[in-house]
Amino acid sequence: MKQIFVTATDTDAGKTFVSCALIHALTHHNSASTNETMKVAVFKPISAGCELVDGQLINEDAKLLSEFANCNQSIAHINPIAFEQPIAPHIAAKKLNQQITIADISHHYQQVKSLNADVTLVEGAGGWRLPLGPSPHSPVTLDAKSTFSNHNTETTSDNKKLPYQFLSDFVKGAKLEVILIVNMKLGCLNHALLTYETIKADGLECIAWIANCAASDAMNNLSENISELEKLLPIPKIAQFDFITDVDEAGNNISYHEKINRAANKINLSVLV
Ligand SMILES: Nc1ncnc2c1ncn2[C@@H]1O[C@H](COP(=O)(O)OP(=O)(O)OP(=O)(O)O)[C@@H](O)[C@H]1O
Ligand SMILES: [Mg+2]
Asked: Can you tell me which residues bind ATP (predicted)?
């Protein structure tokens, strides 16, 4: 089973858009071993920005992922930790007197893994280093080899240091392979390189990157920027997506599903199948 974590240079970079395109491409691809279409399960561990429907918090990303994946998962199965307000999740949790823990995320991930899909795709939230807040476990002695560097701590009122946790610590624990989505805009070279270097420093494999134009106004010198990243990132670029407008040349509306279909056709799946 392939386990992929989709991260990006920032929020709104196209993680959900690209994830749906990857899922669409994979579910229309026959597995080499069984010659059957591939089974893809999805996981969006944390979301902030949800609609309350019949007492259940529904996140749009989880809904979209569920429409493309093919393992009959419920929204709650896909997205177990959800907050209504569109703010940093650990701040949303704190306002509700809740804590987001790696143990909780890992427990829910095990349930998704137990579906035994050919590919399990996990969409992150925000960028790579998404804070989850101080660990609720008893204070630990921090050393140089600790997962958490010493400055990533919160001091409690009784002067104990609690280590801060990040979503990337879950990715480390689950040993997921990472795909990096680069939102092609001014500043993306710095963001892409910092994110790639941090993923590597965390001891994880970043197996591919995708250039995505998530905004309608294309950046100046787009092709030169993509060429620079091709030189600087030592991993394959497996797709390049232009911004796909809502209306085509003939004036017809293009649905989200049609956009995803068009994007999926441009992906080189060789690192995934
Ligand atoms: N190549 C593209 N063409 C057209 N629209 C795009 C493209 N990439 C992204 N978008 C649109 O840009 C917006 C942001 O993309 P998306 O929601 O996928 O970002 P994200 O990284 O998942 O954000 P979040 O951090 O909130 O999860 C969405 O409306 C999406 O449909
Ligand atoms: Mg998203």
From this structure: 12-17, 61, 123-126, 212-213
Q: pLDDT tens across 155-208, in order? A: 877 777 888 999 999 999 999 999 999 999 999 999 999 999 999 999 999 999
Q: Which CATH architecture has domain 2-133+166-271?
A: 3-Layer(aba) Sandwich (3.40)
Q: What is the dihedral of CA 192, 194, 8, 77, to 10 degrees?
A: 160
| Ligand 1 site-directed mutation target among 12, 19, 121, 122, most atoms within 8 Å of CB | 12
Question: Do residues 69 and 27 make contact, with C-beta atoms less than 8 angstroms apart?
Answer: yes
**CA quadruple 201, 214, 61, 52: dihedral sign:** positive
DSSP string computed for 152-186:
SEEE-TTS-EEEEEEHHHHHHHHT-EEEEEEE-ST
Q: How far is CA 102 from the centre of its chain?
A: 16
Give tens-digit pLDDT for 72-127: 999 999 999 999 999 999 999 999 999 999 999 999 999 999 999 999 999 999 99
Say if residue 81 is exposed, middle or buried (CB neighbours under 10 Å; 0-12, 13-18, 19+).
buried
Catalytic residues, by residue number, are 44
